[in-house]
Design goal:
The chain is built from seven helices and five strands; from the N terminus they run αββαβαβαβααα. With 261 residues, the protein is α/β, with parallel strands linked by helices. The protein has a five-stranded mixed beta sheet with strand order 1-2-5-3-4, sandwiched between helices. A hairpin with a 2-residue loop joins strand 1 and strand 2. Helix 5 packs parallel to helix 7. The chain starts with a helix and ends with a helix. The relative contact order is 0.10.
């Protein structure tokens, strides 16, 4: 037989056999490697997570993650601190209206207070005391300024007009040794300039104790409501304080309008 023809015939068979065995061996090797990786992954809880499996138990925990749907609290959420139970928010201080505790109410100071009604002689119509250092009322009897001085008052604020005799009242107050301010209110409510002026007077402790008056205390109540609102008290609360000081429905509408109600 021609040896060259034999070699040419046998060569393809040898190549096919070799390739077949090699492919089988390679496949077996890959399967073994895959099994080893799978076994290593199952033995190593920190291996990369299988996307078809659950989460990686060795992933770093995030203590600031948002609270889950089961309601567990997030200790790093806003409003918590290390000194508080987890999930309890730090309480906010109660809100306070600006000016709701002004100088006329600062009783911690050693200032002379306005007398209570039971200590006052019957010289001021509708006398009352809307603040510890400020009294309010209606008409002051003629000749009563000296009596007010004896009761400890230092200042009188009159809302009477010239036609109502504020000039004579001022002269009598000065003769009695009292400070006197005339803020004649001729409209249904004090205007802005009058309210600002009264705010300065009422906020000056050197004027305490002081009496603010008109003919019936209606204008005084209007002034008091606007003054309190002017220093930051909420409008409806200021209205209530004004009513307590003498404000009537005949002037309340004008007061509300000035407050923007």
């Amino acid at each position: 037989m021609d040896i060259n023809r034999f070699r040419r015939a046998a060569l393809p068979l040898a190549i096919a056999f070799a390739l077949g065995g090699g492919l089988t061996a390679c496949s077996d090797s890959q399967n073994a490697a895959s099994q080893q990786q799978s076994q290593a992954a199952s033995a190593n809880p920190c291996a990369a997570a299988n996307p078809s499996a659950g989460s990686n138990p060795c992933a770093a925990a995030n203590p600031c993650a948002a609270a889950n749907s089961s309601g567990s609290a997030n200790p790093c959420a806003a409003g918590t601190s290390s000194s508080q139970p987890v999930g309890s928010a730090a309480p906010n201080p109660p809100a306070q209206a600006k000016g709701d505790r002004g100088l006329p109410f600062a009783i911690e100071n050693d200032w002379t207070m306005a007398p209570y009604g039971d200590a006052m002689p019957n010289v001021v119509v509708n006398y009352n005391r809307p603040a510890p250092f400020i009294a309010a009322g209606g008409n002051v009897q003629e000749g009563a300024m000296a009596q007010l001085k004896k009761q400890g008052f230092k200042t009188v604020v009159s809302l009477l007009t010239e036609e109502e005799g504020v000039g004579a009242e001022e002269q009598e107050a000065h003769q009695a040794g009292l400070n006197f301010y005339g803020l004649g209110v001729s409209s249904r409510a004090p205007n802005r300039e009058q309210v600002d002026a009264f705010t300065r007077i009422a906020s000056n402790p050197s004027n305490y104790p002081m009496l603010v008056h008109c003919a019936s205390s209606n204008r005084v109540g209007a002034m008091w409501a606007l003054y309190r609102h002017n220093v930051g008290v909420p409008a409806e609360i200021a209205i209530e304080e004004g009513r307590a000081a003498g404000l009537k429905t005949s002037r309340e509408g004008a007061v509300r309008e000035m407050m923007g109600l």
